């Protein structure tokens, strides 16, 4: 049986950081540097700390997030070896369920509805691996945790880290090598 | 730490069987007997075998399913002892996501968004117990499977069976007794 991987959407498949920066620039005329967002929660990375919360409740926000570079090709590659599940903590923003579904349908149409999970707390997800950008999800995961680098998590180092989708492929390919 | 239970919606929290019968009678003027639905897949329990599929794709169907008798009180009781998750295979009918969410908000407002999971395949759900009416979910569950009786499953006897919510409480209370 194939090993299973749970892959997060925001910050992993979807480049939400770039989307926050773009929307902030559009609305405030200020282009925030990624360097100013390092190690702080996403809302605190912007001069107006109420902006992020407003964005995530704006219709269309989740539907229009750009795909994380390399994600489509990497997920296709992983699906050859692993049973891949998209596991998104979508319940926190209930209005985004249909947007997230449409987004996946557009960018990852090769992922079956059988392999999509919208949840709250991820602690009951029992996959062999979990790729996520948040400790709140990785700290309680049952399989091997893989932290996908985001500005907000750069100082958290208690999980295996990957910086991009090439890193994910390299790490998981190494995992497959028999001991 | 509390033990975890995954509870299905359709056929367990939501009385979808009664809803099918009611909608069929409304549209066809024929009240189907539950006895005629025993041991057959839901669509095959009705004279017009296309009706069920049409119902589940009709806006409002999932929003208006009656609550399974005793479910609200039993879930409240279980939450005293267990970490209760609602786990629904909602991805099969994507249009129903928001209806299911609103239904839960109306009938089970005491269940946090953190404890709601809309998924496809349930095999990655790692709870200690799973209460469901379908073998396709129970056969691959990682914890103890509990089959909630429905007309379609009456001849499947390889899982612990409960006939109603009183049975669920009785079974899980017995489980708590120290050996």
From TrEMBL, chains A, B:
One of its GO terms (molecular function) is 5'-nucleotidase activity. It comes from the Bacteria. This is 5'(3')-deoxyribonucleotidase. It comes from Pedobacter frigoris. InterPro entries: 5'(3')-deoxyribonucleotidase, HAD-like_sf, HAD_sf. Pfam families: NT5C. Gene3D superfamilies: Deoxyribonucleotidase, domain 2, HAD superfamily/HAD-like. The active site is at 8 (nucleophile), 10 (proton donor). Belongs to the 5'(3')-deoxyribonucleotidase family. One of its GO terms (biological process) is pyrimidine deoxyribonucleotide catabolic process.
